[in-house]
From TrEMBL:
Residues 35-76, 154-192 form the RING-type domain. It holds the Pfam family zf-C3HC4_3. It comes from Acorus calamus. Keywords: Metal-binding, Zinc, Zinc-finger. Residues 1-21, 234-254, 313-333 are annotated as: Disordered. The keyword Cytoplasm does not apply. Residues 1-15, 243-254, 321-333 have a biased composition (Basic and acidic residues). PROSITE patterns: ZF_RING_1, ZF_RING_2, ZF_ZZ_2. This is E3 ubiquitin-protein ligase PRT1.
């Protein structure tokens, strides 16, 4: 993916609303779901490694495509991977704020068409016909849908999420369950993507939502997790904790080789270019650009993702497929 430096983030379009929503009066936004960059409802939310949430485009446009780490606008924690959209949060927002979310969808799509650069299309692929019908009905009536526990299940334990942590790929796990994924490297059970860096922090926006909407179930999950943690402490340090310490040290050492005070020391950076698989931005070392993808933003993979033959779709809705076999290799210099 190549950075569109001349474009503004498609988060606000003046005086545009859906005609069918003019009389609904449903413009209320839960402050917990307000993006700290555009000050509007999260749209296609991504969760940074620090646990803070922002819109897809807000996160991308706030990242540094140069040689420095990017920083979370709230806590200033550094990161250099552009996360995938959190589909669970996306559907929650669609159900709880159907009118405003559809307004945001229209606004963003118009800006994307103008910029000829698109975010991933999620709704049709995620929702069943029944769910889609319910969403359309809620939109017509200007009402939100009832959220059930089945909407907020952990990817691993299949129970209601407790202290949810979102991986770089966008899949959501309980904080405790994330530790069970470690086997030398933190890898998602669903898409098999490796999570860069250390363990992700708890997404407090989602955690607070769960505690508020499911207080009894949340209390039960809290008691069960605390009891399990007590038993684990009596049994001694867990294997995953030891692996986490080693992994964090290894990650820090590797990062120290690449950057000193934000300046590249070992490998050249591909300025303004990120990996469409793992999301590292800017890309370091070798870069592979697909010559069969015709989109202006391009389709690029870092050396690690190219070698692993990543089959993940592009982060900007590129029509890349495994049949595309023509690549241009850019060196490290």
């Amino acid at each position: 993916m190549e950075e569109k430096t001349a474009k503004e983030p498609p988060t606000k379009v003046e005086d545009q609303t859906l005609d069918s929503m003019d009389d609904t009066g449903d413009d209320e936004i839960d402050k917990a779901f307000q993006c700290f960059i555009c000050l509007d409802l999260f749209y296609k939310p991504v969760v940074l490694a620090c646990g803070h949430v922002s819109c897809f485009w807000c996160a991308h446009m706030s990242m540094s495509g140069w040689v420095q780490h990017s920083h979370c606008p709230i806590c200033r924690q550094t990161y250099n991977h552009f996360p995938s959209i959190c589909e669970l949060l996306h559907l929650l927002l669609l159900k709880t704020h159907p009118v405003v979310y559809k307004r945001r969808e229209k606004q963003v799509l118009e800006e994307e068409k103008k910029n000829e650069c698109f975010s991933p299309q999620l709704v049709d692929g995620l929702m069943t016909k029944t769910e889609h019908g319910l969403a359309e009905n809620a939109l017509e009536n200007g009402t939100s849908e009832q959220i059930s526990i089945t909407d907020v299940l952990c990817t691993a334990c299949k129970k209601m999420l407790f202290r949810p942590a979102v991986l770089n790929c966008g899949h959501v796990y309980c904080e405790d369950c994330v530790h069970t994924l470690v086997n030398g490297v933190l890898r998602c059970q669903v898409c098999q993507s490796c999570h860069p860096g250390g363990f992700p922090k708890v997404c407090l926006v989602l955690d607070n939502f769960l505690e508020e909407h499911f207080p009894e179930e949340y209390a039960q999950r809290k008691d069960a997790v605390q009891l399990r943690q007590q038993h684990a402490r009596h049994a001694g340090p867990s294997t995953c904790e030891s692996q986490n310490e080693k992994g964090s040290t290894k990650s820090a050492r590797k990062d120290g080789l690449l950057r000193t005070n934000g300046i590249v020391t070992e490998f050249a950076a591909h300025i303004g270019v990120g990996c469409d698989s793992c999301g590292v931005f800017p890309m370091m070392g070798k870069r592979y650009k697909c010559k069969d993808c015709m989109e202006s933003i391009g389709f690029d993979l870092c050396g690690d993702c190219y070698e692993s033959r990543s089959k993940l779709p592009g982060r900007f809705n590129q029509q890349h497929t495994p049949d595309h076999r023509s690549w241009h290799e850019h060196g490290e210099d």
